[in-house]
Amino acid sequence: MKKIRIKQAQIPVELFSTMGCRTQNGADINAANSYQMNIQSVIETGHLYDNYVSAAQKDGRGNICPVTIILPTIAMRCLKTFDKGNGYKDTKEGKRDLADYFLRTLNNKIHDAKDMLIERFEYICSQDASSAKFMYENGLMAGYVPEEGIRSALKHGTLAIGQIGLAETLQILIGCDHTTEEGMELAKQIEQLFKDRCAEFKEEYKLNFGVYMTPAENLCYTSMQKFQAKYGKIPNISDREYFTNSMHVPVWKEVSPFEKIDIESQLTGYSSAGCITYIELDGAVLQNLEALQTIVNYAMDKDIPYFAINIPNDLCLDCGYTGLIGEDKCPMCGGQDIQRLRRVTGYLTGDYKTAFNPGKQAEVLDRVKHTMKI
Ligand SMILES: [Zn+2]
Question: Of 4, 110, 243, 246, which is least surrounded by CB within 10 A?
Answer without folding.
Answer: 4
